[in-house]
Amino acid sequence: MKGDPAHQRRRPVVPPIALQPAIMRLSARPAGSWRLPARSDPDLLIHGRTFCQLSNHRLRVDKAQRRLKVANQEKGVASMKRDMDLVRKLLFYFEDKQSFSVDQNVTIDGYSEDEIAYHLVLIAQAGFIDFEPQRSSSNPDRIYKVYPFGLTWKGHEFLENAKDENLWNKSKEKVLGVTGGLSADVLGSLIKYYAKEKLGIPV
């Protein structure tokens, strides 16, 4: 009955199909960027309490991901993200090599074996080093390890432009500020631009 207190406390049941738009919206948003929708948003068909529960769930997921990242860093677990500073250090490493023989023990201070191995594959794919590939038996097109020899012409060219510490940092800050990421091609082009500008060459 309408006057029944139990009836007044009862929350309307939200159909599962109505939850899907909000769940997809929350899942697609970057960590920490969720917000309540405008009143014109059709997701307001969802009961306010349910939406808050979804939002709180996203916050808990964000916190859990941050805790996992910190824990992995403390354990020395490698992050499989491209690090252009490591790319540059690897190019310096190969430039300083005394021979063109294969090098199976590449070490860079501050980086794990997994990070170095991953970035060796990346700079090999970019054409910066000569290497011998180790391929997957199930997919010959997949290279999962490389045995590096030394720099290619392209590797030398990139490193020559990237040697100046000030130009390197200036270019990184500019690219990150505009794009939010570090593209090797864009970074290399910008370093060339700043180098020409520094030398007084028309750009």
Give the key terms:
203 residues; mainly alpha; Arc Repressor Mutant, subunit A; 2 domains; two-stranded antiparallel ribbon; 55% helix; globular
**Fraction in beta strands:** 5-15%
| CATH first level of the largest domain | Mainly Alpha
* CATH architecture type of the largest domain: Orthogonal Bundle
Q: Which sequence of strands runs across the widest sheet?
A: 1-2
The overall average pLDDT, rounded, is 74
What's the β-strand tally? 2
Distance between the termini: 80 Å
Describe the overall structure.
There is one protein chain. The chain is mainly alpha-helical and 203 residues long. It folds into 2 domains: 12-75, no CATH class; 84-199, Arc Repressor Mutant, subunit A, CATH 1.10.10. 55% of the residues lie in helices and 8% in strands. It is built from 8 helices and 2 strands, in the order αααααββααα. It has a two-stranded antiparallel sheet with strand order 1-2. A hairpin with a 7-residue loop joins strand 1 (129-135) and strand 2 (143-151). Helix 2 packs parallel to helix 3 (48-75) and helix 7 packs across helix 8 (184-199).
Quick structural summary:
By secondary structure, this protein is mainly alpha-helical.
Spell out the blueprint of helices and strands:
Elements: H1 5-9, H2 16-28, H3 48-75, H4 84-95, H5 113-125, E1 129-135, E2 143-151, H6 153-162, H7 165-179, H8 184-199
Antiparallel strand pairs: 1-2
Helix pairs in contact: 2-3, 4-6, 7-8
